[in-house]
Amino acid sequence: MDTNNTVQQVRTTSFPEHGPIDSTGREVILSLRNVDINFGKGDKLNRAVKNASFDIYKGETFSLVGESGSGKTTIGRAIIRVNPCAAGEILYKGVKISGKIPRALDREVIRNIQMVFQDPAASLNERATVDYIISEGLYNFHLFENEADRIAKVEKIIEEVGLLPEHLTRYPHEFSGGQRQRIGLARAMVMEPEFVVADEPISALDVSIRAQVLNLLKKFQEERDVTYLFIAHDLSIVRFISDRIGVIYKGNIVEVATAEELFDYPLHPYTRSLISAIPIPDPVLEKNKVLFTYDPSVHDYSEEEPKMVCIGHDHYVFGSTKEIEEYKRIRDENVPLKTITVRSPNEVEKKVSEDDNVSTEPVLDTPIHDTGNKLYGIGAFFLPLLGLIAWLIFKKHNYYKNYRMCKKGTLAGLITRGAIVGLYLLALLIAIL
After folding, report:
1. What sign results for the dihedral spanned by CA atoms 160, 166, 172, 177?
2. Smallest Cα–Cα separation from 56: which of 76, 42, 36?
3. pLDDT by residue (tens digit) across 115-142?
4. What's the rounded Cα separation, in Å, for the pair 61 and 68?
5. 50-74 b/e (C-beta count within 10 Å ≥ 16 → b)
6. 430 FRET partner, CA 20 to 30 A, in 5, 79, 323, 412?
7. Which residues partner with 342 through β-bridges?
8. What is the distance between the alpha carbons of residues 313 and 294, in angstroms, rounded to a whole number?
């Protein structure tokens, strides 16, 4: 992850045309160097991101994956200078953009780095028209020659994202979730950025719309040579759109590798747990799948601090010296790891019979009229004898909701009558005495 070019220490107000070149000849457009991001102070201090380091190369899609709360969005917001870094630095084309920087350079960051937000409804100004929402960046940086040029740029980008020019006069609440996300994408791409932080841009969308938004992102990347930081938690999608993937767990980057390398050789146990959670389309196989559960207690970092180490094949893993040696041994065997295990039918039956907590009762085919209507309970209360008969009939034919309702009504009716008879006899006894 080291680059040959040194970081520019002088106070600069613009970015160079190209970023530094690493040892493999690739241009590094963005770098995180030992970044810490904290929230709160004192006893309430929360270390959201810890010592995060990775590079993103020009023209690639680098995906950052992890469970909710792991720090993915926090890193994305730090790149666009919303979240301050408590330690470390973020470099764009070799120029430091974290911390205090000149105002002119801050504007260059806004101009060159855009963000597509997760919630398309909350990220758009409900009081502004689509025309103004998309044009706001053009106005702020005066990226048009005249009004006709601005209109032409806005209409072009709105058509490229699959909407129509007549949509420009409408407001965000008049659009569906997928359309709103297209507006957010148009707002970012009209600035012609070099780098885009896509913060789970499809998680709030219907499945049928997700592929369309992903195709749009890919289209812009091919046509404009855009670099993406794609933040997500769905590895099934990430695998097919990413060049490289970084895995983050509770603020720590635990593994970084190319997409195929990571899925073939998921060395860190947390990565394995994420991959094992990917749903299998076949419901029978999914039902019998064995989930791999990550247990952080398997790591012993009491004597040695873990580090991010390259084990070859452009594959970085987070661990102690002993763990890194084991990871290298597994990788050197060059045998893809089996991450998803499906039990055979015999193993499933054996598992069920051995597990005392698993019910061995057959799954009942509940009849469509088994509604548990309260009228059955009321009728059984007033006519407990008929309720008892209905109770037995419903139970025999697997009408379990109706059976339970008749049972409740019958028992309540019998108890009530028993109480009335008891009170009558008690009153009679008192009268005689």
Report:
1. negative
2. 76
3. 998 888 888 999 999 999 999 999 999 9
4. 21
5. bbbbbbbbbbbbbbbbbeeebbbbb
6. 412
7. 289
8. 25
The answer to whether the CB of 58 falls within 8 A of the CB of 49 is no
| Closest to 205 (Cα-Cα) out of 213, 215, 196, 197 | 213
pLDDT tens for each residue of 194-221: 999 999 888 877 777 788 888 888 999 9
Burial class (CB in 10 A: 0-12, 13-18, 19+), 138: middle
How far apart CA 102 and CA 67 sit, in angstroms, is: 35
In this prediction, the residues of the chain whose per-residue pLDDT falls under 70 are: 1-11, 344-368
> Given this model, what pLDDT does residue 127 score?
93
Look at residue 344 in the predicted model and tell me its pLDDT: 67
Kindly state the DSSP code that residue 220 receives in the 8-state scheme.
H
Q: Which of 79, 167, 69, 169 is nearest to 116 (CA)?
A: 79
Question: Hey, what are 175's tokens?
Answer: 């659009």
How do residues 38-81 score in pLDDT, each as one tens digit? 999 888 899 999 999 999 999 999 999 999 889 999 999 999 99
Give me the DSSP letters along 120-154: TTTTS-TTS-HHHHHHHHHHHHT--SSHHHHHHHH
CA–centroid distance for 168 within its chain: 31
Is the distance from CB of 130 to CB of 181 less than 8 angstroms? no
Task: Please give the span between the terminal C-alpha atoms of the chain, in angstroms, as a whole number.
Answer: 101
Q: Which DSSP symbol is given to 89?
A: E
Question: Which CATH number applies to 28-264: 3.40.50.300, 3.40.190.170, 3.30.460.80, 3.40.1280.10?
Answer: 3.40.50.300
Q: Which residues contact 281 (CB under 8 A, 6 or more apart)?
A: none
Please tell me the distance from the alpha carbon of residue 133 to that of residue 124, in angstroms, as a whole number: 7
Give, as one character, the DSSP assignment of residue 256. E
- HSE-CB at 309 with a 13 A cutoff on CA atoms is 16
Q: Can you give the residue ranges of every domain in the chain? A: 28-264, 266-294+309-359, 374-432
Rounded to two decimals, what is the model's pTM? 0.75
Distance CA 49, CA 98 (A): 15
| 307/323 Cα distance (integer angstroms) | 10
Environment class of 381 (CB within 10 Å of its CB; exposed 0-12, middle 13-18, buried 19+): buried
Return the structure tokens found at 189. Answer: 């791409």
Query: What tokens appear for 36 in the block?
Result: 């810490």
Beta-carbon contacts of residue 433 (< 8 Å; ≥ 6 apart)? none
Angle at 171 between CA 165 and CA 175, to 5 degrees: 80
